[in-house]
Design brief:
heterotrimer, A mainly alpha, B mainly alpha, C mainly alpha, A: mainly alpha, Cytochrome C Oxidase, Chain A, 16 helices, about 70% helix, about 0% strand, C: mainly alpha, 4 helices
Chain lengths: ~525, ~210, ~100
């Protein structure tokens, strides 16, 4: 497998042209090359994202005029499947499995991840899990209608096809665990000579923190969902009050995973924008260690705040106060990060290209998300706002405005490196503007709806909410148009884009020292690292 | 740690890396079974007296025997690695075979135990169980789920060790390349540890 | 460094047999203690003994003793995570079930 040195010096073959054991499609789906797996993940993830978006738009269409287009039962299935797809199939694997897979080994100066075959297996588990989830929509007692949280005891009693969907999600969980396990070992074992932990690009730090969360939280989800399947099959009764069980325990165990999962989604996005700011401001990152440690402490505190999803569940008051307190503590490392990003831009020579625009948008939208998070993290306010559209608005700002825009920023930043082509910058900016406008119309209206008392997940509503629902739906169309423009730009540029140079943005990290697209083994010769990653002065 | 980075990829197996991967996998198992122990402790807190009563229906002798069996198998497993490293392949294969055998005996005991309960009409959702108190229902559900998942891990272990045994026989596992066996050992010891906790929590709380 | 050590040094079978005997002795102890019907203390005693046994298995059979320090920290991290989620869950149920 080691490249012939003489041939390599003349013209390094990109990983797209690599001669492997298999030909055609098999050279992809059986490839253990981290770059091919990253691209496969990317294609799959964006496909599922598109399906999720379509489901979301259908929900919004129903809310213009409830009952006219879609039945109640279908609506319940729509928000369930929308949630399951966007959470488990898009945003949790999103950045780590696609961009992380592609760039982590390159950024630390390695030829591949520690366990290439487990990496491939992770992709297969992801695809199997995704296929099972999709299958569950069309088979058995109908698509799941529980909401993506699968709360007991309803998820135990409903006749819908919940068990199959849960099997799919468990597969996705294992896929996520394998990715995490791989990344931790890769970062510990495969750094290039001289690449100490504190010389790693900060994206690697955020992936490292994410990987630990994946490893230590996902098993709890696996067992919890397995127990729901067993409840449905054998009536074991852990979460069924009539048999002596406790449904609140289900909420505990579900959120023990699903709250840390929020940090699985957001941390890599923070990592991406941390890569982008120094490059587009041509300045060294401000407060490297503070950012690195804030990633770790966000992961740590994020592990301990799941109870703030349960303030109205009937949990004890002591627990509610404790969880509310720890929730506020997460805001501190997040604030440290935002401060450092802004400080990095200060007095920089700023180059306002689309990766930076998306990163700035990330800060803006994520700040709204974080501040609205403080509102609902406050116990007293939560009691009023829980289960309203305010929550829906909040987590769409976090997931989509945060993790989603971070992902888009990363796509624009690394697109030339991954494909070897440049996208059309002007189109990218127009797409950004459309997405930004549509996004805020769609989701900011939800904050208002929530404050006015519109409950989430309702099929029908009081007449006074009608105007805002229509505004929100119009926003969803603008957003969709922007997304189509953005992806259209990417797809068109694959064929018509200019050839990308080795380093289009003037980046200083290792991926910009190798050709675009990278050769199969990344580096002809493993580099020796002598300084930190963002050396601009 | 770093200087070996380049040579480790594809040229030589990175032992520390491979073992680190296995340990991290075991951490996920810790959390997996840990969540079940969390459920157990919550319900035990809720139904303390009923758990004590229900536990009297379990067979201490079988439970103790199974504990001894798994501990012994663990000892054989650990020894088999030492023997491979000393090049004593025949003895190592013997030790691995003993581990497999003891694992199977453990599963047979488990089968007998479950069989007795089921013949008494005690299994999840059975009419006899539903008539009992809520604490007993939960106790037996926990018993079936936890020992069941543990038994599944034993079964997987038996298959994996059968694999390493074949590898050792073909010398694919040998003096210089034994990390597969070592990682299998780590897994098997972990399964043993789970039982070390399951045993007192179910059998000894009468 | 550590990598070479862990490859060269193997723990002899004799040590394993001693550990195995200790484990069996501890099993006998825990069964005996359970027979004494110490009620509340019985649980603590049996958890304590089980943890001692687990520690023996981890240290010797899984030879954590010989592994690099980073692995020990990782193990500590995993156990810490489990402990914290148990404690936080109990901050709810201890009070709610009373």
């Amino acid at each position: 497998m080691v490249m012939d040195n003489e041939a390599a010096m003349k013209a390094p073959v990109s990983f797209y042209g690599e001669e492997g054991r298999f030909k055609g499609i098999f050279s992809w789906i059986f490839s253990t090359n981290h770059k091919r797996i990253g691209i496969m993940y990317l294609v799959a993830i964006l496909t599922f994202f598109s399906i999720g978006v379509i489901l979301g738009i259908l929900m919004r269409i129903n809310l213009i005029s409830p009952g006219k287009f879609i039945s109640e039962r279908t609506y319940n299935s729509l928000f369930t499947i929308h949630g399951v797809i966007q959470i488990f199939l898009f945003i949790i694997p999103g950045i780590p499995a696609s961009l992380g897979n592609f760039f982590l080994p390159i950024l630390i100066g390695s030829r591949d991840v520690a366990f290439p075959r487990i990496n491939l297996m992770s992709w297969w588990f992801y695809m199997i899990g995704g296929a099972i989830v999709i299958l569950s929509i069309f088979t058995g007692g109908g698509a799941p209608d529980t909401g993506w949280t699968f709360y007991a005891p309803y998820s135990i009693r409903t006749t819908a096809n919940v068990s199959l969907a849960l099997v799919g999600v468990i597969f996705l969980g294992f896929s996520s665990i394998f990715t995490g396990l791989n990344f931790i070992t890769t970062i510990h074992r495969l750094r290039a000579p001289g690449m100490t932990f504190f010389r790693m690009p900060l994206f690697c730090w955020s992936l490292y923190a994410t990987a630990w969360t994946q490893v230590l939280a996902t098993p709890v989800l696996a067992i919890t969902l397995l127990l729901i399947i067993l409840e449905r099959a054998f009536a074991i009764g852990f979460f069924e009050p009539t048999l002596g069980g406790d449904p609140i325990l289900y909420e505990h165990m579900f959120w023990i995973y699903s709250h840390p999962a929020v940090y699985i989604m957001i941390l890599p996005a923070m990592g991406i924008v941390t890569e982008i700011f120094p490059v587009f401001a041509k300045r060294t990152i401000f407060g490297y260690k503070a950012i690195a440690f804030s990633s770790l402490s966000i992961a740590f505190f994020g592990y301990l705040v799941w109870g703030h999803h349960m303030f109205t569940s009937g949990m004890s008051d002591t627990a509610r106060v404790i969880f509310s307190l720890i929730t506020f503590m997460v805001a501190v490392p997040t604030g440290v990060k935002v401060f450092n990003w802004i400080a990095t831009l200060y007095k920089g020579s700023i180059q306002l290209d689309s990766p930076l625009i998306y990163s700035l948008t990330f800060i803006f939208l994520f700040s709204i998300a974080g501040l609205s998070g403080l509102i609902i993290g406050t116990l007293s306010l939560n009691l009023y706002l829980h289960g309203t559209y305010f929550i829906v608005g909040h987590f769409h700002y976090t997931m989509f405005g945060g993790a989603g825009f971070g992902f888009f920023a990363g796509l624009h930043y690394w697109y030339p490196k991954m494909t070897g082509r440049m996208y059309n910058e002007k189109t990218a900016k127009i797409a950004w503007l459309t997405i930004f406008i549509g996004f805020n119309i769609l989701y900011f209206t939800m904050f208002i709806l929530g404050l006015e008392g519109m409950p989430r997940r309702y099929f029908q509503y009081q007449p006074q909410f009608r105007t805002n629902h229509i505004i929100s739906t119009v926003g969803s169309w603008i957003l969709a148009a922007g997304l189509i423009l953005m992806f259209g730009n990417f797809i068109r540029s694959l064929f018509r884009g200019e050839k990308a140079p080795m380093n289009p943005w003037g980046g200083k990290t290792l991926e910009w020292t190798i050709p675009s697209p990278p050769p199969a083994e990344n580096f002809e010769k493993i580099p020796v690292i002598e300084h930190g990653p963002y050396k601009y002065e | 740690m770093n200087e070996s980075a380049e040579t480790t990829v594809r040229h030589r197996i990175d032992y520390t890396g491979a073992k680190m991967g296995m340990w991290i996998f075991l951490f996920t198992e810790v959390l997996f079974f840990g969540s079940l122990f969390l459920l157990y402790s919550v319900f035990r807190d809720k139904y303390t007296a009923e758990f004590h009563k229900a536990a009297t229906e379990l067979d201490i002798v079988l439970g103790t025997a199974n504990t001894a069996i798994l501990l012994t198998s663990s000892m054989f497993m650990a020894t088999s690695i030492t023997l491979v490293r000393k090049g004593k392949y025949g003895l190592s294969i013997f030790c691995q075979a003993a581990t497999i055998l003891l694992g199977i005996v453990f599963l047979i005991n488990k089968y007998i135990e479950w069989g007795v309960h089921i013949s008494h009409g005690i299994y999840p959702n059975s009419p006899a169980l539903l008539e009992m108190s809520r604490g007993k229902i939960i106790f037996f559900s926990l018993y079936y789920v936890m020992t069941g998942l543990h038994g599944l891990h034993v079964l997987i272990g038996v298959f994996v060790i059968s694999g390493t045994l074949l590898f050792t026989a073909r010398r694919k596992i040998n003096e210089t390349d034994f990390v597969k066996l070592e990682n299998t050992g780590l897994y098997w010891h972990f399964v043993d540890i789970v039982w070390i906790y399951l045993f007192p929590l179910f059998y000894l709380i009468t | 460094m550590t990598e070479k050590e862990s490859q060269v040094q193997a723990i002899g079978p004799k040590a394993y047999i001693v550990v195995w005997l200790c484990l069996l002795a501890l099993t006998a102890t825990t069964v005996t203690v359970a027979r004494l019907h110490l009620t509340a203390y019985a649980v603590i005693a049996s958890i304590f003994i089980a943890t001692a046994k687990a520690a023996l298995v981890v240290t010797f059979f899984m030879h954590l003793r010989r592994e690099p320090w980073i692995l020990k920290i990782m193990l500590f991290l995993a156990l810490l995570a489990l402990t914290l989620i148990v404690l936080l869950t109990f901050s709810d149920v201890w009070i709610r079930y009373k």
